[in-house]
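During the first year of the project, the team set up a workflow for recording each protein of interest as an amino acid sequence followed immediately by a discrete structure-token representation. This format lets reviewers and collaborators read both layers of information side by side without switching files. As required by the reporting guidelines, we include two representative entries from the current panel. The first entry is reproduced here exactly as it appears in our internal archive.
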Amino acid sequence: MSVRYLIAPHTPRAQDRLAEALLSALDKTLTLKLEYSQPVQTAVPELHYALRKRLLLQPRIQLWSDAPTGYRPHPLQWNILWAPPLADSLPDCDEIWVHSPAEQTHWQQQIPECQVTLLSAAAAVPIWPDASALPVEISEPQVVLAASADRDPELLSQILKTYLTACGQQEDSVLVLHLSGENADPEALLLSQLEACCAELQLNLDSLNIATWIGPLESAAYLACLQRARVLLAPATVAEAHEARAAGKAVLGFDFDQGAPCAWRAEELTSVLQTSSATASAPDLAPDFACLADAIRQRLQHLLDSVDFAAREAHWRAEQARAAEEAGRKQKYSLFHSDYNSQEMASRRQWHLRYAKLFQAAPGDVLDIGCGSGIFLELMRELQLPACGIDPDPDMVRVCQDLGLEALAGDERLLQDFQPESLGGIHASHIIEHIDGQRAIALIENARQVLRPGGLLVIRTPNWRNASVRHEGFWLDITHVRPYPLPLLKQVLEDAGFEIAQAGFEEFGWNDTYLVARQPGG
């Protein structure tokens, strides 16, 4: 049993560390395949590459921990969406993982048929790096941290306006602002937003306490900033919000009851900074992601043990068979695909009818080799001539049977199972070019054995003399093996003991080759 785990590469901070803990926990007991839900341009951790290159033949669970954008459920896997954004609807999935009772209630009401699992908050353990990991110089005691603030221009504007309104004139606070570079020109974006806010609030741009860095945000750098911070503004993920709260930091812009981002006001930031920190002397803490990862591992193992994956596969295969059946008479593996509209169906019936009439005096049942969707058999029924078909495609056999026609699975090699002199005719339209020379000889020799005296063998095949066939037309069907020119077929049939009753080329289309060979006697 195996798990397909899809994440966004370099997800910010806490989600990164949660993913790392989860990867380590899962890979110890489950067969794990890691995939990225979007392209990655930079180097990835060694563990990521080792898990990404792993080949899984039959993954059973698909765990998607990015936003549902690009998500596709897989019919043979148990599909889990992890902490999707609150909405009225989601793509089809089997289970949703959430981090708050409010989220659980929301999704249970919105999708009552879907399993909603609450992942409880983890205990806290110290994991802070040393101060040397700080990406910017911070000397002020009151740090307001906003990471990946440029992921949305409106969010950046709200962060700047909130901070400048609350702390624009204060010298003992600093906004530590990270710009991920997701926008094309983050510096220009920041400058334009700052100028607009300063103009609105009548502040001097040069006097602002803002420390900024641009580029990838490593976990150590983020944790060092969070260690110094009093407030985290607008966390990017659920894991990030829980991590900051577990560390005793105030969090604005996230509703823990709803498990989703929320609005905040400058007055809230002012109140937080004016209140003495209750955790100032407490040890620096962060969530124990290893503990949470172990709980997730147990949940996944339970699913692997309890979900009836065989039943899911059986249902899927039944649906595939039904779809193939509905596709009906569509040809396969060829550029001559057709949906068989009424006009084309009429043409095909006329094309077959001239050959069906050849069997009106056949001394017994007629076998249609490669009967396909049964056009020739339907014509034989209309002519009240006994006929049955064989085809190697079980879907085509079912189509014929549903039409009330006699058909069974098999190919031309089934002729050797018929009793000698048991058939009155054999129709082999566009069959021989799909087999090699040895099988072609066996087809003709077996036909000679099973036909009654006077019985007919009709062969139709592409005409190699036709320029369209010879140049490339013959090879537009991937199942074609080799062409059989008319002189060759006549010689092989005569060598087998047949009499050639008719032979030539059709006067329409690509001038297909046809031969009518008669069993001597009768």
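The second entry, processed by the same pipeline in the following quarter, appears below.
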Amino acid sequence: MESAHLVVEDTIRFGRHTGVTMEPRAILADYNPAEESMTVYHCGQSPHMMQGIIASRLSLDEHRVRIVARDVGGSFGIKIHTYGDEIAACALSLMLGRPVKFAADRYESFLSDIHARDHRVKAKLAVDRDGNMTALEIDDLTGVGPYSMFPRSSGVECNQILNLTGGPYKHKEYRAKGTVVFQNKNMMCQYRAVGHPIAVAVAEHMVDQAAAKLGLDPAEMRKRNLIADDAYPCKSPSGMRFEALSHHQCLDKLLALMKYDELRKEQAELRKKGVKRGIGLSSFIEVTNPSPMFYGVGGARIAAQDGCTIKLDASGAIVAATGVTEQGQGTETIMAQIAATALGVEMSCVKVLTGDTDKVPYGGGTWASRAAGIGGEAVLQAGLALKANILQAGAVILKANAADLDIADGKVVRKGTEQGITLAELARICYYRGNELPVDFQPELINPKLVEEQARGGIVQGIGGALYEQCLYDERGQLLNATMADYLVPMAAEMPDIECAHVETPTKTSMLGAKGAGEAGTGGAPAAIMNAVNDALRPLGAKVTSQPITPEVVLRALGKVR
């Protein structure tokens, strides 16, 4: 960095906050002594992981533990961990031979649900005379509570920050240090967009600071430094592998959508009138569809893959069972959509089963924006295989070649015509009138617009961390604001109008091509907000370097309060 034209450095602090789910954690354990089996109704994200944990901790055979995780009222990573009260409920049921239920109230949730985002990051960025980033250095200090959270460990957020900071940019030199310390506070662990808000906010803050020092427009600064859209696949300086991204195309679309040049002109005119308005940009990478890198982290097995069992039942309906779970993000809808598209039927014909370890294939569950990319790919492949089997059966019944048939409007038809047989009739023949089929033919009918709302919900959650939410402790480690009356979350009145647009760059590693999108807004919004606030404050010679950006923080930056 010594040879750089300009080096900017700063320290950014992030307040500790937690995921406030609509439905607090709950569990009902029911041990049956006669069958030596345990059925657990669990408000969680990864049923098969929980099955293995409960079986191993209570010395039960895994196949004798059934986890049922129906529709869950929000999770955000809070419900992928294992809490002592949940294991206690299972242990008591085993001891007593009767059902035991635990349900946390809101106060208990604030005190025991994992917290996240408590970081102090020192950063340096070096640029040359033309504004090209040459080197980035960060030093992250974070607290994790009195011990590491079971089973995923509490060091993952810090690790994500070290991996992701500065990820979209083409600088060659990168140095990162992370220090994790124990605190007399609640446990820290993975929460929606693990590490992303900190990594993105740090890098984007430094990019804006360097642009201001050089007299460059923040958008132009990013155009000069974002990895080129035709440079993939490539690796980041931290070693992250990037396969297919499109930052320049996204930035161009964003600037056009928001009418960036017009906003800058309006901003200049308003400043002449004493009105300070800020514009904030944020470029980032969201880690989705995680590989086996998470297997066994913290001592619990969690699958990196998912399966789908899909069948045409006797009534002609499609039933798809998947290992990913529903937490309100629309898993059942997207899986039904994928299955319907693969088979050529209406979504109303598809029933999706999730969350029951006795009924769905083994899988990792829902976390890290993996449901559509991994679970959806399994549904697509199973759906295409089932379609092939249906067409084979249809070919026998219609005395045609399978290659000449297709499925349309719930019927197996000859391509280009409406002549054929309904799926209901085909299913009736295959299930009940097998004698009408050739003796050597065995039908195999069993085979192993939500993105925008995910973005909006994620952005609002990011706004919470950027402007409102913070777990406040006194000097004795006592949580001071463990009620909804004292802990501020953005609600309807705080939710801005959000316009979404899309640039589609499918991954080449799957047929579906899906990437996760559930955490993007949460990861990117805090950086854009902080940059906008600082953009407004810059003419006054002030800046904020901590989140949440409360009125007090802004007034302190302006020297109005101490």
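For the second entry, the following points were noted during internal review. The domain at 6-16+115-289+453-557 is CATH 3.30.365.10 (Aldehyde Oxidoreductase; domain 4). The first helix runs from residue 47 to 57. Both points are flagged for discussion at the upcoming steering committee meeting.
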